[in-house]
Design brief:
The protein has 424 residues and is of the alpha/beta class. The chain has 15 helices and 15 strands.
Length: 424
């Protein structure tokens, strides 16, 4: 990370009083259940042995049902980087053991692929889901790796031909019966989310990135990302906390309409969805929360009538663009995003909605907002919602810093269209 960038981020951290995020690192050996494995975990484990500290879920490193000197030894090895195996709890709640060092990775997960880039591990990838080949600007090294099929029907033979040490997938995709059940038991499948999905929101994403940092021995790079994360997230949350609940903007959040019925109903997003968490963290009141079904028991997402949206009269409308062909790292023209905005504004009766009357319809691309770039997207939404409160912070500069962390040109942020309209 460039020195100037790091200095500005640390200044933000100091400004908002950030020291460490309030999350638990789900790696076995984290005996005291904080966000790092260090000497304090050894002390805590000894306290468990002495009966002065309570047993914790991650203290029993070797899984033999007790904490003893063997666990102390294993914690010490994790701390000094000599461990032969790292065991973690993934985003699916499963315990996954990974032999280290990891040198050969097969990956299905786009967001985790971005994390591998800023963790300096792109060269460890040996196989990728087929769609990566369409994202060469976003993944200049990773996209060149062997095609191992799509998530619906992974090419098991191709995966095995690459002799992977680790496979990284989404929690739900590919399905376990399509992937895990067809692999030798020796190949671990790590299912992690790096997009802010679920009840844990972006703190769970921070946990996933820390887990990757331990597994691929990139803890320093993970810490640099976390400093960037803490600076912007802390700045947004500090300022949002000063806005009374009754003064917060009411937001209707939707995704690119699915199917052919795009007029009388829309595809709305509610609680626990990555985009929904983004809206709430940025100080918006998502009007669809509690009015949608839960998708796969994970988040609220589904059809909602335009008449209902009219009745709610939101102050702001945000559309998440998932249109085929909108790959912001590859796409320099804003015509598709502008067309999506115009479609929303042109819905029957929407000319009377406050968001439309006051020109507060905003579009963000999924590849910009629902990724580890979440902090700069959070700043963007917060600035759209409360321009005066955030007039001194620039989401585009935050995005440029993220691009630099990934090893990409910061000029991509100026040249390509990640959101619409431009922010002042």
């Amino acid at each position: 990370m460039k020195g100037k960038m790091l200095a500005s981020i640390l200044a933000l951290c100091l400004m908002v009083g950030i020291s460490a995020a309030d999350f638990t690192l789900h790696v076995y050996g984290n005996a005291n259940m904080d966000d790092v494995i260090d000497e304090e975990d050894i002390e805590y484990a000894r306290g468990i042995m002495a009966g002065t500290h309570d047993m914790t879920d991650l203290a029993d490193v070797n899984g033999d049902g007790k904490v003893d000197e063997e666990d102390i030894r294993l914690i010490e090895e994790i701390i000094d980087g000599t461990a032969a195996e790292i065991k973690v709890i993934d985003s699916d709640g499963n315990a996954v053991s990974v032999k280290v060092p990891v040198e050969r990775i097969v990956i299905f997960n786009h967001q985790a692929a971005e994390a591998l880039q800023f963790l300096g591990a792109a060269d460890k990838v040996v196989g990728v889901r087929d769609i990566f080949e369409k994202h060469r600007n976003r993944f200049p090294v990773i996209s060149q790796k062997m095609n191992i099929g799509n998530g619906g029907e992974p090419d098991i033979e191709a995966i095995l031909s690459q002799n992977p040490d680790l496979i990284i997938a989404y929690t739900f995709y590919p399905a376990k019966e399509k992937l895990d059940a067809k692999l030798p038991l020796k190949i671990p499948v790590l299912r992690i989310e790096c997009d802010g999905e679920g009840s844990g929101g972006i703190d769970s994403m921070r946990d996933s990135i820390s887990i990757l940092g331990y597994i691929i021995n990139s803890r320093e790079e993970a810490q640099q990302y976390q400093e960037w994360y803490d600076g912007y997230v802390g700045a947004v949350e500090t300022r949002i906390s000063g806005i009374p609940e009754e003064n917060r903007v009411r937001v209707y959040l939707e995704s690119t309409p699915e199917g052919s019925e795009t007029i009388s109903s829309r595809t709305a997003i509610g609680k626990n969805h990555a985009a929904g968490n983004l809206i709430e963290r940025a100080g918006g009141v998502n009007i669809a929360v509690g009015h949608l079904p839960f998708y796969e028991d994970t988040y609220e997402y589904g059809e909602i009538e335009t008449e209902w949206v009219l009745e709610q009269n939101p102050e702001v409308i945000v559309g998440r663009s998932m249109v085929i062909g909108v790959s912001p790292y590859e796409y320099e023209n804003d015509s598709l995003l502008r067309a999506y905005s115009d479609e929303i504004k042109g819905l029957p009766g929407f000319d009377g909605v406050d968001a439309v009357k006051n020109d507060r319809v905003y579009i963000v691309t999924n590849a910009y907002a629902c990724t580890p770039n979440y902090p700069s997207a959070l700043l963007l939404l917060a600035k759209w919602f409360y321009p005066e409160t955030f007039q001194d912070l620039d989401p585009r500069e935050a995005h440029k810093e993220y691009l630099e962390m990934m090893g990409l040109s910061p000029e991509i942020a100026d040249r390509n269209t990640f959101f619409y309209p431009e922010v002042a």
